[in-house]
Design goal:
Layout (H helix, E strand, L loop, with lengths): L1 E6 L4 E9 L5 E10 L6 H19 L3 E5 L7 H20 L3 E5 L1 H9 L6 H12 L8 H28 L6 H18 L2
Parallel strand pairs: 1-4, 4-5
Antiparallel strand pairs: 1-2, 2-3
């Protein structure tokens, strides 16, 4: 499975592609950032974003897209522009047949680092350590996009683990099923207090 993570923007947009191998290991496939030339009109920048997105999808054939959710910006105009960029990416992803998911920046940071408030440099250090590249070799928008893709991969792996532990009742999974059952009963007990 290949996941394309996108850190959207109308001046600079980051992308990062990871692959989840059968062993469960996560590998970086590609990453970068699209400089959308802030001197051009918005429509031109959005068209460039669409073209570049299609090129990356054609070159690396991801199966999934995870895009950062919009945040409430202090500047309404910035939030509106970000929404335009997200719309372009979501439309292109849908037309490309990608499975689409979204994640907030805070959630992605929390999944990756355990801290939803870490900064871009801290995320870059974690990503370079996790995926094995030199931090200085990528723009921060690209490492943010890789963190979005990795967070989505971790969510997918966790949900498939839970699904398989419920369905597969083989002896090798007996302990997992028992733990899951205990936690489920514990949750039920807690709901009544």
């Amino acid at each position: 499975m290949r996941i394309l993570g996108i850190d959207p923007g109308t001046r600079m947009a980051g992308y990062g592609i990871i692959e989840i191998q059968n062993s469960g290991k996560i590998l970086a496939v590609a990453a970068g950032a699209w400089d959308l030339n802030a001197n051009q009109e918005l429509a031109s920048r959005l068209a460039t974003l669409a073209i570049e997105f299609r090129r990356v999808v054609a070159a690396y054939a991801p199966t999934h897209l995870c895009i950062e959710l919009s945040f409430l910006a202090e500047n309404p105009r910035s939030a509106l522009y970000l929404g335009h960029a997200r719309g372009v990416v979501l439309s292109e992803a849908h037309q490309s047949g990608l499975k689409i998911s979204e994640i907030s920046a805070t959630s992605a940071k929390k999944i990756i680092s355990g801290n939803g408030r870490c900064n871009k440099n801290e995320i870059a250090k974690i990503m370079s350590s996790l995926l094995g590249f030199q931090m200085q070799s990528l723009p921060l928008d690209a490492t943010d996009a890789l963190s979005i893709a990795c967070a989505d991969a971790m969510r997918i792996k966790q949900s498939s683990f839970h699904s398989s532990s419920i369905i597969d009742k083989s002896d090798s999974n007996k302990k997992i099923l028992e733990e899951w059952s205990k936690s489920k009963k514990q949750k039920r007990r807690l709901q009544f207090f």
